[in-house]
Amino acid sequence: MHMADALLSPAVGGLMWAASGAALVVASRRVQQQPDDRLVPLMGMLGAFVFSAQMINFAIPGTGSSGHLGGGLLLALLLGPWPALVVLASVLTVQALLFADGGLLALGANIFNLGVLPCLVVYPLLYRPLAGRAPSSRRMAAAVMVSAVVGLLLGAAGVVLQTVASGISSLPLQSFAWLMLPIHTLIGVGEGLATLALVLFVRRHRPDLLQAALPARPARPAGNHGLRPALLGWAMAAALLGGVGSWFASTAPDGLEWSLLRAAGEPAAAAVPAAAEPWPAVKAQTSAAGLLGGAATLALVAGVGWALRHRRGRPAPPLPADRG
Amino acid sequence: MARLDHALQTLRALDDVAAGARNRGQPDPRALLLGALACIVTAVSFERHTVAALLPLALFPLALAIRAQLPWRLIKRTLMLAAPLVLMVGLFNPLLERETALLLGGVPVSAGWLSFVSILLRATVAVSTTLALVASTGMPVLCNAMTRLHVPQALSLQLWLLYRYLFALGAEASRMDTARQLRAGAQPRPSLATWGALLGQLLLRSVDRAQRLHQAMLARGFTGSLPSPALRWRMADSVFLAGWCSYFIAVRMLDLPTLLGQALLRGLT
């Protein structure tokens, strides 16, 4: 469910970076304020655990398909919401940088969809009220399942809104939502089952780990509670801006396009094709120039690349053989 | 499990490439990071049906990849990993936008196909730029660059630790699953109950390992942060960044391939 750079506009990508960046700054401050420095290696290790666990799938009986752990809810249960967000952001960053899951511009959107929503919205506002402070196994199971499904659905809705608001894909909002939400309900059930299996295992063998995130609450200074309403307001405003504000950004030239058009001496309205005219005006001459120029550019880029490589003239290091 | 082994192999391969690239000399990682971001933002800022004008942007990842001696197979493999969502969403465009936008040798090409090709090109530029960036720097150096660019220290430290532990924990997870597979016969994937027990054990081992690691870090004078080596910004780094940013602005403002094509057509006629 990772959002991709290729489907994002700069306006939506920038907005999601601003929203996730603000959340990460607050989360990092909260982590640095923790007096217990055991948290630092634990966060690193749990990040590596979530990364590894995401790559081991379990069979879903009767469907022939498989599911895997998402990690947001589990991390929030083990570490608390703020450290969980930092850990998940680091996992998503490694995935974006090394495995092209998303991309640099889409990283803000992915941290928001897969980190901020489950850790800072679903965990405190849904899981905690549903589970209570000392839940029975059954109540905890129900809370985990509901939270996992809602978290996945919110993330999928985020992908839909960000894609449609970016305007790169032609998929209309309703069709894309119908395409994404039912399948992510099922994926959410899979994620809920995976989280539940781990939570019940930990609860049976090391119940102290699940309590570790809880006792900090009463000891927290009273002033810190003020952040929650602010965070909620910020999250809602960011979601509203991402969902509604960017619609306007996508139907008119963005700041860069506007300034470039101004710089080129053309009126800004020229960027949007007139509704009455067939889109776009088909001109064989322009098409031929574009095609020929495109081919020539490719040849030039390849030529420069060849020249650079030839000049260096060293063999590339060996790569492990492809597997699976 | 093939996925995890495969991921660890990719990490090791990229680490090796980055180590070699750094030995041969690279621009400051901050310049590389900012340049990569500028390239990706330029790529995604084009109008959605743009195809030819995007092509010159391929020069940036190409130059970085060649300089770092990044194997083509690694780029191709990563592009294949990134393809599913982009293809799934992009393939709807030809179905939904059927107006003719281009005549290709007299054959009409719809706007949907143009935007689909544009999405593929954007993905190619973005993925190869990101990969070339990591291959030119390596994750630890990139984490240091992020710290120097005022990314919150808790995040950059976490990123660094995650990367360090990934190899050890990933190898342990791989060994555990191999042991399961050897006992599971024809079942390629574990049941949920087995998966829970397997990953639960790994989780508890991770927590125990983190505690041992914390004690080792304390013994070495850990105070909550790690020292990051100083980076030196040289004039060449400014020239590198300014040069590429100027190139991106030129690519964005002028449709270089069309201008080139028009010039070639004039020359031919």
Give the rounded overall mean pLDDT of chain B: 87
- How would the global form of chain B be characterised? flat
**What is the element string of chain A, with H for helices and E for strands?**
HHEEHHHHHHHHHH
Task: Please state how the strands of the largest beta sheet of chain A are arranged side by side.
Answer: 1-2
- Described by the principal axes of the CA atoms, the overall outline of chain A is globular
Class from secondary-structure proportions of chain B: mainly alpha
Largest binding interface between chains: A-B, 115 and 137 residues
Number of helices of chain B: 11
> And the CATH topology of the largest domain in chain A?
Arp2/3 complex 21 kDa subunit ARPC3
Distance between the termini of chain B: 60 Å
- Residue share in β-strands of chain A: under 5%
User: Strand content of the residues of chain B, in percent?
Assistant: under 5%
Would you tell me the overall average pLDDT of chain A? Answer: 74
Largest sheet of chain A: 2 strands, antiparallel
The major beta sheet of chain B can be summarized as: 2 strands, antiparallel
Low confidence ranges of chain A: 215-227, 229-235, 237-281, 315-324
- The CATH architecture name of the largest domain in chain A reads Orthogonal Bundle
* Overall helicity of chain B: over 70%
Please give the radius of gyration of chain B in angstroms.
23 Å
Helix content of chain A: 55-70%
The total count of strands of chain B amounts to 2
